[in-house]
Amino acid sequence: MIKRIFMLALAAGMMAACGNPGNSEEREQVIDLSTEDEGITAEPENDAPEVYEKGGLTISPFADSEKFPDAKLMLNMPKEGMKQDGKKVSFDFGVEGYQLGAQSPEAGANELANSAKGQHIHLIMDNDPYSAHYEPKFDKEFEAGHHVAIAFLSRSFHESVKNPDAFKVFQFFIGQKAKDVQPMDLSRPMLFYSRPKGEYAGADAQKVLFDFYPVNAELKADGYSVVATINDSLEFEFDKWQPYVIEGLPMGENTINIKLVDAQGNAVDTKMNNVTRTFTLKP
Predict the structure, then answer these.
(1) Residue 17's pLDDT is what?
(2) Are strands 275-282 and 198-201 parallel, antiparallel or unpaired?
(3) What distance in Å separates the CA atoms of residue 49 and residue 60, rounded to the nearest whole number?
(4) Are 121 and 154 in contact (CB under 8 A)?
(5) pLDDT tens digits for range 227-250
């Protein structure tokens, strides 16, 4: 509802300014959310990328990466819904149309933190911080319980590959008690946090990649959106799934909370949603 009200107000403001082409163009390129009418960003009428500005932060779309439309990730192991007693889980992925270990074409030139080991798989377990894997086969140990995971292909500078074949969501159970747990409905809307993560220093701390992964939820102006709260005070809403770059974050510890909301602004009631991550910037 807030989103719809904001969109009506934005449209009215643009009509009032139609006699001033310069101001109208600027309004379509940058949406300033620094006023008390906090809220929520609508798509510009010309579908131009939004730039969010608030509290000294600038959040800009990052859309210059190679898309890898033919990249494909397949899950061989573990099998969906696997139940076992041992803590060690063997992972076996198939990868097509994408080279693990290679440097992504834009690496270094886009001023984003980059892995010297190249392109990889992000594995996110239970919406905890991801682990990066540069080979398609590896082992990991887990505590007893029910575990929900997403794996997706990642560029060397940690931007996710966003095509419908480049990810897998799955679950498994470890331990006798977990075997009686009801499995999660993986067709439900979900939201996974990817970046920022860890520690950034020097030039890497100036531009920070902000990237998340919605599943079973199309982001659009009258549908699902992602609300991000930075350092417990600055709130932004995104209704377009694309990577972003954050500039202006203070040095030291920072936090980002993300949650998936519906068209009425209600948080989606699902286990894989509403996650907070802390990361650190150093001069």
Answers:
(1) 41
(2) parallel
(3) 8
(4) yes
(5) 999 999 999 999 999 999 999 999
